[in-house]
Amino acid sequence: MTRYSRQTRMLVAVDCIIFGFDGQDLKLLLIKRGFEPEKGKWSLMGGFVQPDESLEDAAARTLTKLTGLDGVYMEQLTAFGSPRRDPMERTLSVAYFALIDINQYKQQITDEFKAEWFPLKDAPKLIFDHADMVTEAQARLRYKAAIHPLLFELLPAKFTIPQLQILFEAVYDAGFDKRNFSRKVLSTGLLIKQKEKERATSKRGAFYYKLDKRKYSAKFHAFLNFVSDPGNLK
Known about the structure:
Elements lengths: L10 E11 L4 E7 L9 E2 L1 E4 L6 H13 L5 E8 L10 E10 L1 H4 L10 E4 L10 H18 L10 E3 H12 L5 H9 L4 E8 L7 E6 L1 H7 L15
InterPro entries: NUDIX_hydrolase-like_dom_sf, NUDIX_hydrolase_dom, WH-like_DNA-bd_sf, WH_DNA-bd_sf, WHD_NrtR
Protein name: NUDIX domain-containing protein
C-alpha cells in the first residue's frame, strides 16, 4: 500500500505577512493577485508547498521570490484551514510573518507582482482570510516584541532612541514616556552608542546607536520586558 486509503487529498500553501518600518509607520507588503479566483485584488504573498520542500523552505522561497532577500527574520504563525477558505479548491495555508528593513531593501522588490507597501492601519481589503492572518500576525508581533528584541530587525544599521520609540509606538498604536522608554532600552545593554548625531529632526540632535550583534544574538530569546502589559496600552 503506497497511500492512505479512503482519504481526501488537499493542497498545502504558505502565506507570508511581511512587515516593514519606514521611520513613521509600520507597513505591510501586499501584491496584486495574478490569477483566479480574486485576480487583481490585494493579497499576501503566498505559494503552494512543493513535494520536495518543507514548510520553512516554501516560506523562505516565497519571501525571496518577492523581495530578493535571504536570511531575514521569519516565524511560523499558525495554520488556517477552514474548508471553504479558498473557493477554488480545498487548501490548508500555514502563515509566516517576516520583518525586514524597508529602507535597505525596497529597491530589490521585484515588479513582477506589482507589490506595494501600505501602512498597516490603512491596508486595503484582502482576499480570502488574509486579513485574519494579518490580525493574528500583528497580535503575535506585539506579544513577542514586549519581551524580546525582535523589532530591531525592522531598523537600519544605525538608529536613534527616538526612532526606536516611534517604531514601538507604531507597533502598539500607543504612546510611551520618553525617559522611561530610553532607560529601559539602554538597560538591556544591547546598544552601542556612536559618536555622530542625527540632526535632521532637531538642532540638538540625537546620538546614533548600533546593535551589539554578539549580545543581541545571546539575548534574543531572553525575557527583557520591553513593554509591560502590552494588551492594555492606551
